[in-house]
């Protein structure tokens, strides 16, 4: 009996020691960070790739030191089916367990495009072209036709032409002639080979998500269509970047509309110049004298359509204007934070305007002096 017991005990001791050794090796292998030279590159895992093939690729690329520990872990303690296809960037150094966590979470390569509030369709078209030009993958073609002309990167005119398709907003704004005002300003993470059509559609779909069904009812309740509300919101958007005063600006617009007074919003002159391809950064007398229906200095009422992208707060302000008797406003030069002074009388407005003009001339003089200084 003793002769049998001693070898058995030795066998158990050896087995326990071996198991402890394997456990230590596994833990050390899976949790020890490894440096590699692929930190700035994407590792592509195609759909349908098996767990074993994924691990083998990671070993070939130098992300992990050995495929064996990770394969054993996946077969015994984890579920290889959880690994997702995608395009991955792995930090360096990185442990196999951290790599596994990324693969289970899944990653896609994305490129960011920022559309600020108040951007016009012309600004957006330029930003889309810039995005595609910088795109390291794919050509962002406008069309999916196979000829080489169709697959060339789009220019601004081609992107603007895409914005004439109003099918995505027809139910909301059947009178809209283009997508101006309906491409929501935001930061978008896109696939690097996103086409111009896809980018425009993404922005319009975001607008549709932001627009609430009750807003359509509220617009009708105040005698406006959704398109008119978006148009008014775009005027508010371009007049002030201070969200808290947007309802007050909205009240000025509605007060002027009710009195039949032209809105006199200079940003409509800027928009006219952009439409006619002659915007040079300065509002000229010819812009203010334009016969375009967008000229709110010459014609009363609102323009035929929006003049920029609109934020949610500007839409809310257009639907819920403050109750005031203001019909004028001018920049608050004392605060100099983008806010405004508001007035009910022309005489008060003229005083504020005079102060603003003095401030503006001082700013211009300082700029001239700075430009005159030796570099």
What attributes characterize this protein structure?
375 residues, mainly alpha, Dna Ligase, domain 1, 3 domains, two-stranded antiparallel ribbon, 6% strand
Number of discrete domains? 3
Largest sheet: 2 strands, antiparallel
Which spans of ≥5 residues are poorly predicted at pLDDT below 50?
138-150
Give the strand tally: 6
Characterization of this structure:
The chain is mostly helical. The chain folds into 3 domains: 77 residues, Dna Ligase, domain 1, CATH 3.30.1490.480; 99 residues, no CATH class; 126 residues, no CATH class. Helices cover 49% and strands 6% of the residues. It has 14 helices and 6 strands. The strands form 3 sheets. The chain has a two-stranded antiparallel ribbon with strand order 1-2. A two-stranded antiparallel ribbon has the order 3-4. A two-stranded antiparallel sheet has the order 5-6. A hairpin with an 8-residue loop joins strand 5 and strand 6. Helix 2 runs antiparallel to helix 3, helix 9 crosses helix 13 and helix 10 crosses helix 13. The longest helix is centred in the N-terminal third of the chain and has 30 residues. The termini are far apart. About 3% of the residues have low confidence.
């Amino acid at each position: 009996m003793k002769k049998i017991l001693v070898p058995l005990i030795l066998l158990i001791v050896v087995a326990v020691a071996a198991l402890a050794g394997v456990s230590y090796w596994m833990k050390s292998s899976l949790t020890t960070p490894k440096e590699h030279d692929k930190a700035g590159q994407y590792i592509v895992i195609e759909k349908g790739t098996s767990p074993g093939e994924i691990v083998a690729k990671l070993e070939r690329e130098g992300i992990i030191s050995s495929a064996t520990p990770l394969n054993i872990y996946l077969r015994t303690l984890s579920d290889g089916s959880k690994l997702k296809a995608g395009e991955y960037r792995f930090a360096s150094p990185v442990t196999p367990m951290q790599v596994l966590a990324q693969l289970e979470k899944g990653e896609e390569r994305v490129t960011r495009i920022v559309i600020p509030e108040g951007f016009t369709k012309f600004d957006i078209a330029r930003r889309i072209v810039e995005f595609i030009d910088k795109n390291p993958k794919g050509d962002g073609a406008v069309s999916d036709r196979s000829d080489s002309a169709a697959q060339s990167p789009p220019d601004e005119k081609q992107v603007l032409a895409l914005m004439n398709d109003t099918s995505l907003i027809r139910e909301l704004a059947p009178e809209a002639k283009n997508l101006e005002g309906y491409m929501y300003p935001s930061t978008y993470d896109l696939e690097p080979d996103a086409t111009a059509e896809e980018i425009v559609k993404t922005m319009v779909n975001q607008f549709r998500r932001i627009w609430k069904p009750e807003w359509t009812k509220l617009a009708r309740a105040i005698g406006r269509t959704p398109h008119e509300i978006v148009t008014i919101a775009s005027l508010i958007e371009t007049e002030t970047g201070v969200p808290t005063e947007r309802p007050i600006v909205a009240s000025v617009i509605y007060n002027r509309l009710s009195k039949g007074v032209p809105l006199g919003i200079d940003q409509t002159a800027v928009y006219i110049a952009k439409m006619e391809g002659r915007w040079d950064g300065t509002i000229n007398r010819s812009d203010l004298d334009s016969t375009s229906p967008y000229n709110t200095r010459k014609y009363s009422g609102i323009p035929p359509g929006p003049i920029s992208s609109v934020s949610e707060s500007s839409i809310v302000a257009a639907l819920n204007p403050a109750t005031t008797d203001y019909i004028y406003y001018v920049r608050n030069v004392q605060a100099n934070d983008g806010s405004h002074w508001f007035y009910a009388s022309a005489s008060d407005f003229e005083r504020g305007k005079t102060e603003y003009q003095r401030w503006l001339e001082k700013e211009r003089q300082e700029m001239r002096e700075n430009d005159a200084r030796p570099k």
